[in-house]
Each structure stands twice: as structure tokens, then as C-alpha cells.
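Researcher: We're reviewing a set of sequences before deciding which ones to prioritize for further study. For each one, I'd like a predicted 3D structure that I can look through quickly. This is Guanine nucleotide-binding protein-like 3. If possible, include the structure in C-alpha cell form so it fits the rest of the review sheet.
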Amino acid sequence: LRKASKRLSCHKRYKIQKKIREHHRKVRREAKKRGRKKPKKDPSVPGAAPFKEALLREAEQRRQRLEELQQKQKLDRQKELEKRRKLDAKKNAAKIEDQTEGTEPSKSEANTKEVLHKKSKKSLHSELEKVIEASDVILEVLDARDPMGCRCPQLEQAITCSRGDKKLVLVLNKIDLVPKENLEKWLNCLKKEFPTVAFKSSTLMTDRTMREHFSRKRARIDLSRNTECFGSDCLLKLLQEHCRTQDKAIQVGLVGFPNVGKSSIINSIKKNRVCNAGLGRGLTKCMQVVRIDKKMKMLDSPSIVADRANSTLTLALRSIIDGGGSGSIDVVEAVDAVLNHCSKQQVMMSYSIPDFRNTEEFLTLLAQKRGMLKKGGVPDIENIAKLLLCDWTGAKISYHSQPPGSQMLPPYLTEDKIAEMQKGFNLKKLEEENNATVQALKYPSPASSIVFQSAGMTNGKIEENKVVGEASQWESLETSEEEEEDDFMETDDQDSMEEEEEEEEKDVKEVNQVLYHLHFSSLTNHFLFSESGCDSSLSLSLDKSADEDDAYDFNTDYV
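Model: Here's the predicted structure for Guanine nucleotide-binding protein-like 3, in C-alpha cell form for your review sheet.
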């Protein structure tokens, strides 16, 4: 159906306008009779009154108390509204479950989610295992803000105790987010165990399709700080020199925990976006092979899965945060653990937030400042907590941890192992290149960088790795292999002896059959030709056959 037209006749339109004019005239007439009331002025304190300053101060304090009370009442109302919304949402969810098939489907869905989560972790294990197995040199990528927390003792032990000539090199990434003095201390500490390379990857790396579009839109912005890479030449020279000493093509695998910059390092070396990289954790799901030159390939790997037995702080910064499920961690507890290991004043200065009493109040103030609010102006605490964790694992917040005062080697590292890992690398040249990289960068001041207390090394799940193992396992494997070889030789000898015996039995049976035929033919000749004087020859032949039957000569062929 068509809508009714809003057009009116002129008579009706003029009549309406006349009524409106009469109404306005009536309203003005009544207002004139009442008279206009002017707003009352605030009776200020006279200048000659005694204690004028004290009275003004009291009035200001009363006004501030009234404003605080109003703000408190507003927050209480918001909390009550949020509670009511949550209760209503729970009631609606319960009604929907009752209307459908009850609680059993929800349990099955939870079980399927847990199974899928386990399968995804198993696939990450298998892909990481492939990378370690195929690599000749393994680069363990560490975040320069917390290098000790990015190290995995299970991975290092597996590589150092493995058979084969595998090398482990530490790459200290994101060096532009820590003070210069702290970086030099960490380089001196880590180079005593493994060869260490200082690296700063380019964060804003575009692919070939985005290059023109990017240059048109942001031509005026200086992106040299984000697009420039430091330490790539040093790393390439180190690997190429090792390739020359080995005199063969090598494969280099990059391993590490989430958001340490594995894919960004490959993109920086290739100077192109060949691997997917971003702020999200666990973006790389499978092994990716990238050719660097004729004699070198780099293998990008998924992140190491952190063990659930680690501390809350370690899981907050090093685990893969996924939505829901038994494997996910509480983001508010994770933020609480991070804040407890930092200086409160430095966090307040970094985020420009006033004093707070607890983590929830800090997240509330941060959500209000950044405008992350739900319906009704309620702060979105969960999402702001996730965003804060992204700031700490990404390249936004500058913080640093101090290296250990008295350095103790891990139990799996001995002087022989250290010498074996450093063999084939020019360490003097590496130190000169690292010094050049350190001098070329700009660093934050120690006052603007947050002091962070590290929780130590992070335990990872590397027990499913089939490529590498401990030395005792290899020794047991070698002894078992030798026993298997001896058993195999014994079984081969037994089989050959049995075959020879069977062949001899077959030969004896064939010979007996031939002798039987000869004996039968001699008897027939005796009965047929007894009168012709052939008894002597037959008796000789029978005697001979009897002797041959008793002692068989294997050298003669009777067939």
C-alpha cells in the first residue's frame, strides 16, 4: 500500500497557522501578567566581614564534598545496573538452556572445545619439533626487556644434549625498549653461555601490494624509527661464516615464546613481509620455510607452549591467551601479577593515571581514560586488561629487568658444552658488530623505563620432541641398538643352519630313491640272465650298492 500524502489544502494550512499565532499571543500575554523572574545572585561574603577567607575555604570544601558524594552515588548506580544486567543475562541463558535440550549439550560442547584445544597444542608441538629436527642452527629469540623470562630450559637442554652438530644462538630482540646500560649488562651476561646477537626488527613492514598505497597516505610521516632494522647484517654475517666453515647449505630455525619477534626478524632480514606478524599471540600455526640465499634457509616456527605449572606472571606474559576454555587464564589476575612486580609510581607516570588502591580501580581509571566503556558507561575491565597485556608483550611499554648478580650456569650447561656451542663462530667479530649496533640506536632514559622484577626462566612443554633428548637416553639407545644387532646376527646364523640341514635331508632322500631303483633293476637282471654266467658281476654290483648305501659319497653326482 502507498503511504498517505502529507499535502494539505491551503484553507486547512492557513487555519493551523492562525491557531498557532493565537496560542503564541496568549502565552506572551500571560507571561507579561506574571512578570519575568530574574535569577538570584549568589550573595557573596562582604569584603568587610571578619574571617572572610575561612568562610570562603569552608564553602569550597562543602562544594567539593558534594561533588564527591554525587560522583560516588553515580558509580554505585552504575555498579547496580551492571549487576542487574548480569543477573538478567544469566536468567535469559538459563531459560534458553531449559527450552533447548538442557545441560547435556553444554557439557558436550565444553568437552569438544577441550579436545580441540588439546589438538591445537599437539599440532604446535609437532610443528616446533619439525623445525628443531630440520635446523642446523637454532636461534632462540629473547625479549630484551625480560631475557631470562623468555628462555626455556627444556629447549636449551634438549638442543645441547642432542646428537648431531646443532648450534644454539641467542637473539636479543627489541633492544630499543630498554636503557643502554641495561642492554650492555645483559649482553655481557648472556655471551658467557651462548653466542648472543643484539637485534632491533622493523615493526612497520609492508608487503609488495601495500607499498604504493602506504606511501601515498603516509608520505609526510617519518617512519624511519619503525621501519629501520638494526643487527640484521651482524646476524647474517655470523650465519654465513658458519655456513662457510661447515661447507654445506644450512637451515636456521627460529624458536621462542609468543610475541618475542620471530616472524619480524625474518621479515627484517628479507626486507619484505614474507611472514605473518602482529600484536596477537600465536599467529604462526605451522612451519614456514623462507629462502635467504643459495646456501641458507630460515624456518619460522610456532611459539613454545608454556607449562601450566609456571607462575601467574609468567603465564600472563608468555602463554597464548585464547578465549574461554580451561586453558585460558584470568586476564585480571594476570594484570594484577604484572603490577605487583613493578613500581607503582612508575606505572602511574607511564599511563598518566592518579593514585589507585587495587588492580580493579587501576583498570577502571584506564578504561575511563581510553573510552573503553560498556552500555550505561560501565568500564570494560576485561577488554582493557587484554589491551594492557598486549602493551606489555608488544612494543609499546618500555620496561627492563636486571641481570642476576651472581651468574650460575644451568645444570645442563658445562664448559665443554659451552665451548662446543661457540665453536665455528667468530666471537670477537660478533662482539664488535654488537657494539656498533648498540651505539647506532636511541634508547629510553632509565627514569622513563619501568623497573620490572623477572620471574626467572619459563618452563615449556618440549617432552614430546623425538629429535632431541638427554645424554642418558642416547646411551641407552646405543646399547639397545648393539643388543638388537647381536640378536639379529644370531637369528641369521640359526636360520642359515636350518636351511642347510633341510637341503641335506632333501639330497639324502633323492639319493635313497636312486639307489632303490638301481637295486630293483639288479634283481631283475639276476633272474633274467642267471644262465649266462653273470652271477659274479651281479654279486659285485650288489655288494657295491650295499657299501654305497652304508657310506654315501656327497662329492659324486648321481642324477
